[in-house]
Automatic annotation (TrEMBL):
InterPro entries: Dimeric_a/b-barrel (IPR011008), NIPSNAP (IPR012577)
Organism annotation: Zemynaea arenosa
Coiled coil start-end: none
Domain of life: Bacteria
Lineage: Bacteria, Pseudomonadati, Pseudomonadota, Betaproteobacteria, Burkholderiales
NIPSNAP domain span: 9-96
Pfam family, one: NIPSNAP
Entry protein name: NIPSNAP family protein
C-alpha cells in the first residue's frame, strides 16, 4: 500500500445536468498529469452510478504543506488559467469535499499504474465502492475497532480492499477550496471485478452497515456509493502489485 500521500481529498462534484461526460473528458485530458508533475496524484476519477450528475475523484498530497504548495502552483498556474472557464461552466457545486487520511500505514490507498492505452484500449475496468460512515464525536477509535471486524468480512475472488480513510481534523490551509467540517467520517474503499461480483457483495455491505448502526457509534446513516471508473482512472479493477513511486 502507498503511504506517501497522507492527505487525501474525496471530492464529489455536482455537474450541470447532462454535462457530466463532457466534464469527464476535460478533466481526464488536462488535469491528472498536471497534478502529478507537481508531486500530487489523482488516485482515481469516477461517475457515481446512482447520481447521474455526480463526478467524484480522489486527490493525494504528501502533507498539508505540500497541499498548499501544489494548489497554489496549479490554480495560479497556466494549465488552470487556460481551461478554468470551460471547466467551471460545467460545475454546479464543488464544495462536497472530505479531507481524509489513512487510518494507519496499512490502509492507505494503492497507487496503481496509469491506464495503458495499448493493453487497456477500453480504459479502466471494474467497479469501485465507497462506504461512508459518519462517526459520533470522540468515538472514532471505538468505531474503528468495531468496523475492523466487519471490514474483515469483505473478501472474495472478485473483491480487493483499496483502503480505509478517516477525517483529517486540521484547518483548511487553502480556503479557496472549502472542505466539510460537519463531523468525523470513515470511508472504506474497495474494487470489484464486475457486475456479478457487485451483486454478490451488496448483501455484505448492507449487513455491515446495519451492524455498525446498531453500535450507537454512528451519527447518521451510512452512504454506499457505487463508482464507475472513468476511462483513465488509476483506481480500478487491477490487483495492486505494482505501485508507482513518486518522482523525487
Amino acid at each position: 500500500m502507498n503511504t506517501e500521500y497522507n492527505v487525501i481529498e474525496l471530492r464529489r462534484y455536482t455537474i450541470q445536468p447532462g454535462r457530466r461526460a463532457t466534464f469527464g473528458r476535460y478533466f481526464e485530458t488536462y488535469f491528472p498529469e498536471a497534478f502529478q508533475q507537481l508531486g500530487a496524484i489523482a488516485y482515481g476519477h469516477f461517475y457515481e452510478r446512482e447520481q447521474p450528475d455526480r463526478f467524484t475523484w480522489l486527490r493525494g498530497y504528501q502533507d498539508m504543506e505540500h497541499r498548499l504548495a501544489v494548489n497554489r502552483a496549479f490554480y495560479y498556474g497556466p494549465v488552470w488559467a487556460e481551461h478554468k472557464s470551460a471547466v467551471n461552466s460545467l460545475i454546479a457545486n464543488s464544495d462536497d469535499v472530505l479531507l481524509l487520511r489513512p487510518i494507519d500505514p496499512g490502509h492507505g490507498l494503492p497507487l496503481l499504474r496509469a491506464v495503458d492505452p495499448v493493453s487497456e484500449p477500453e480504459g479502466a475496468g471494474g467497479i469501485v465502492v465507497a462506504q461512508i460512515f459518519k462517526v459520533c464525536d470522540d468515538r472514532l477509535d471505538s468505531f474503528l475497532q468495531r468496523a475492523e471486524i466487519g471490514f474483515a468480512g469483505y473478501r472474495g475472488p472478485g473483491l480487493i480492499e483499496l483502503g480505509v480513510l478517516a477525517t483529517l481534523d486540521v484547518p483548511n490551509n487553502f480556503p479557496q477550496h472549502p472542505v466539510r467540517t460537519d463531523g468525523t467520517y470513515v470511508v472504506w474503499f474497495g474494487a470489484l471485478q464486475d457486475e456479478d461480483a457487485l451483486a454478490c457483495f451488496r448483501p455484505a455491505l448492507d449487513i455491515v452497515a446495519d451492524g455498525l448502526a446498531r453500535t450507537g457509534l454512528l451519527d447518521g446513516p451510512t452512504e454506499t456509493v457505487i463508482l464507475d471508473p472513468s476511462v483513465r482512472s488509476r483506481l480500478r479493477w487491477q490487483r495492486p502489485v505494482t505501485q508507482l513511486a513518486r518522482a523525487a
